[in-house]
Amino acid sequence: MGVHGKIFISYRREDAPGDARGICDRLSRSFGASNVFMDVDRLVAGQRFERELDKALAKCDVLIAVIGSRWMELLDDYVQRGKRDYVRDEIAAALQRDIVVVPVTTGREANIAALPLAANLPENIRDLVLYQKHSIAHETFGRDTDDLVAALRTVLGHKHGPMPWRTIAAAVVAGLLLAGAALVYWDIVPLPRMSDTSESPASKSDAVQMAAAEETEAKVADQAPRRAIVDEAAKRKAAEDEAARKAAEETEGQAAKQVADCDRLAASPHDSDRPSGVVGVLNNNDIDAAAGPACDDAMRRYPDVGRFAYQAGRAAYGHKDYGRAEGFFRTAMAKGSAAATAGLGVLYLQGLGVSRDYGQARDLFEKGVARGDSQAMVNLGLMYGRGSGVTQDYGEARRLYERAAALGNASAMGNLGGLYQDGHGVAQDYAAARTWYEKGAALGGSGGMFGLGYLYANGFGVTKDSAQSRSWYEKAAALGNAAAMSNLGTLYLGQTGVSQDYATARGWYEKAAALGNAGAMYGLGYLYANGYGVTRDYAQARGWYERAAALGDANALGGLGGLYYDGRGVAQDYAAARTWYEKGAAQGGARAMRGLGNLYANGYGVTKDYAQARSWYEKAAALGDAIAMGRLGELYHDGDGVAQDYAAARSWYEKGAASGGSGAMLGLGILYANGLGVTRDYAQARSWYEKAAALGDPHAMALLGNLYYGGLGVRQDYAAARDWYEKAAALGNTNGMAALGVMYENGLGVGKDDGQARKWLEQAAALGGPYAMFYLGVLYEDGRGVPRDRDQARQWYQKAIDAGYEPAKEKLRNIR
User: Fold this and answer.
1) Close Cβ partners of 419 (under 8 Å, ≥ 6 residues apart)
2) Phi/psi of residue 451, each to 5°?
3) What pLDDT, on the 0 to 100 scale, is given for residue 88?
4) Which of 90, 479, 575, 601 could form a disulfide with 613 if both were Cys (CB 3.0 to 4.6 A apart)?
5) R_g of the chain computed on alpha carbons
6) Per residue in 133-158, pLDDT tens?
7) Of the ranges 188-192, 492-496, 781-785, which one carries the lowest mean pLDDT score?
8) What is the DSSP letter of 132?
9) Taking the CB of residue 290, how many other CB atoms lie within 10 A of it?
10) For every residue of 336-347, which 3-state class applies, written as one string?
11) Can you tell me whether residue 36 is helix, strand or coil?
């Protein structure tokens, strides 16, 4: 080693244990493990911690004070709580005994810890700032620790040589300033003063002096070969040391890179152990696959650092390896990571890799809360807000969210916005909701961004603005917010001011569904059930509805009820429909409530009951269901279960239309076309029909065809009429099909074609179209395009009557 001396490493376990371990390893290689003391290495079972530290400190020549980003914060905490601070005691003892103290600040290069100000230190360690500090950056760990070794060699060499003890502190400064330059001490023989001719009583004769000079010169000449050998050996040793230094630097550089990558790719923004300057990744699902290997290596190199194990757990969670995530979280907890407590709690809360256990989750979250972890506060707040394993308590949820928000947790701010938006535990207040959402969004919280999108989508406390809504949803989606992705899909259905684009809707739904979002699964089922942007596939629709229903999505329960109601992809079964609708309604699903209204309005599987129908429609409408609003308009329009009231019908239609309901738009068009409760206005009728048609309503398309066919409010145009009829027919509308049959039978806008006429009419009749049945009766009665056949005519008239077409009764009575 060349120099002898003992080195004591003082550090805080909650501050920079990994850096202290790396420094200890490097100094042990240079000065010998027996000469470097670090508490975790030397203590054995039965030894008293403080006594052994005191003994080691008494023997040491140099104390290394490792200062990370939290060193001063932890010192303040000990002072405020009146607890014994062993690190402070170690430094104070070293200063009192005149032991050389080297403050070593550590951290990322751009955010390396600063040496505390003397005014901020307790009096007994205030002299710490008088010593020259040395900085060690993670990115250049190998080079910086080499420089520290060189400085310590200078210090220890001075201390154990002839240098006065009081000058050693100055040697620290010199050593640190000269760090990196090799200092070599040679055994040089002093040359005589050849020019000295002074006489004295004790002077030698010239002969004696000449003989002495010759003897000296001979001695020097004899030493030349030995010095050449020493020089050559020194060169070899220097070359070997340089090679070793470069290898160590390369190794340490790789270690620093792995540490930096682990932090960069997997740190949580809410982890109090996150290094300063590291942004962190909010969503586990957004963690890059490279984080796993980086964190594995960081853990191997720095086994005492809890945050690396926690971050490895986050990476495993994000890639759905929940078993490994559990193991990493437990390891991190054992090393003091508060954030890992919340991470493990989430596994128990969701039943991922472990059996779902709300009690365990709650216990873990409470431990995290006690240690000041903001994410544990948020997760425990969610349990109280949802009543998961605890009695639902919005007040307690709010208190926990507020504590977390005060610590800068953006998720907590978004959740507070949700409480004020929905009026849960507080008076409903959209302004307060918006304030919290904006605070969370400003800190990068996707929940706040999603909340703002929701407010703008619905016009809650702000002017309704689909562009703003889409913008906020897109920002949240870019951060991995699955709910925002799902709502973007719904925007592109074209019912909220955004141009209809089923392909884009499907894309967003698929992204959100891949992240487990039940609403998106329902959205995909809706697309397949209706053939929007995809080939209609009831089996696919049912599959998506069932997946969403298994996750508790109330609309999906309503969607399953709808399949059984219509017999689409399954045998028509009103009892099964009712069962699914009741399940969905019990969970607050508007679609399921509307479905029950349909059953009672039509008497399907239940006794017809318009009062019950109206009650269910009103419940669904109160939840914003635009279709239910349209249904209420129809009840008042037709006087079903209520006095006929076109004004009330118009009011409900307008509410439904404002919420994007195509049925309500259609209803308004019918009122204006027929002058019911309003002045007849075909232009208004056409406008509403066009809006409904733009949303894919086939009935509105057929009625637009009627306007052009009859020249009602527009120039009569059979080509335009046929175009609208064909669009309606393509969507299965029997009125459009029947109208095409009439046009071909009469040669209106098309060449007369009895075959085409009969084809369209029979297709419509097969689907239950009453007008098509009636018109087929007319053809057979008159023999127009078919052989005259009164029996066939009677059968078609009867079918039309059974389907509710009243004019067929007179034709049946008068047939000869």
Assistant:
1) 385, 394, 397, 398, 401, 425, 426, 433
2) -60, -40
3) 92
4) 601
5) 42
6) 899 988 788 888 988 998 888 888 76
7) 188-192
8) P
9) 14
10) CCHHHHHHHHHH
11) strand
Burial code of 126-152, b = ≥16 C-beta within 10 A, e = fewer? Answer: bbbeebbbbbbbbbbbbbbbbbbbbbb
Threshold 0.70, pTM exceeds? no
Tell me the sheet residues that pair with 66: 104
Over residues 277-304, the pLDDT tens digits come to 788 887 787 898 899 999 998 898 888 8
Residue 223, number of CB atoms within 10 A of its CB:
14
Which string of DSSP letters, residue by residue, matches 451-494?
HHHHHHHHTSSS---HHHHHHHHHHHHHTT-HHHHHHHHHIIII
* H or E segment and range at residue 10: strand 7-10
Tokens of 773: 């049945």
- Please state, in angstroms and rounded to a whole number, the distance separating the CA atoms of residues 281 and 283: 6
**CA 567, CA 561: separation in Å to the nearest integer?**
10
Q: Where are the beta strands (DSSP E) in 55-149?
A: 62-67, 100-107, 134-137
Question: In this structure, which amino acid lies at residue 589?
Answer: G
Contact 328, 358 (CB under 8 A): no
Structure tokens belonging to residue 815: 């047939």
Q: Which tokens go with 182? A: 């090799």
**Could you identify the residue written with the tokens 């040391």?**
241
Instruction: Give the count of beta carbons closer than 10 Å to the beta carbon of residue 181.
Output: 9
Which of 610, 611, 623, 614 has the alpha carbon at shortest distance from 584? 623
**How far is Cα 634 from Cα 601, in angstroms, rounded to an integer?**
11
Q: Are 113 and 106 in contact (CB under 8 A)?
A: yes
Question: What single DSSP character describes residue 167?
Answer: G
583: which residues sit within 8 A by CB, 6+ positions away? 557, 592
Phi-psi region of 302 (alpha: psi -120 to 50; beta: other; left: phi over 0): beta
Q: How far is CA 749 from the centre of its chain?
A: 58
- Backbone φ/ψ region at 180: left (φ over 0), alpha (ψ -120 to 50), beta: left
**Exposed, middle or buried: residue 488 (CB in 10 Å: 0-12, 13-18, 19+)?**
buried
What is the amino acid identity at position 49? Answer: F
CA 36 to chain centre: 45
Q: Do the beta carbons of residue 340 and residue 329 sit within 8 Å?
A: yes
346 within 8 A of 379, measured Cβ to Cβ: yes
Q: Which two tokens stand for residue 810?
A: 């007179």
Confidence of residue 49 (pLDDT cuts 50, 70, 90): low
C-alpha dist (Å) from residue 91 to 15, 95, 168, 176:
16, 6, 17, 20
Sheet holding 100-107, edge to edge: 36-37, 7-10, 62-67, 100-107, 134-137
Tell me which residue of 178, 180, 9, 193 sits closest to 104, measured CA to CA. Answer: 9
Backbone angles phi, psi at 368, to 5 degrees: -65, -40
Quote the CA–CA distance of 538 and 552 in Å, as a whole number. Answer: 21
Hunting for tokens 């080693």 — which residue is that? 1
With beta carbons less than 8 A apart as the criterion, state whether 701 and 736 touch.
yes
**Gap between the Cα atoms of 375 and 613, Å rounded:** 45
Distance CA 685, CA 669 (A): 4
CB proximity list for 501: less than 8 A, separation 6 or greater: 492, 494
Which tokens is 95 given? 């200063």
Distance in angstroms (rounded) separating the CA atoms of residues 404 and 408: 7
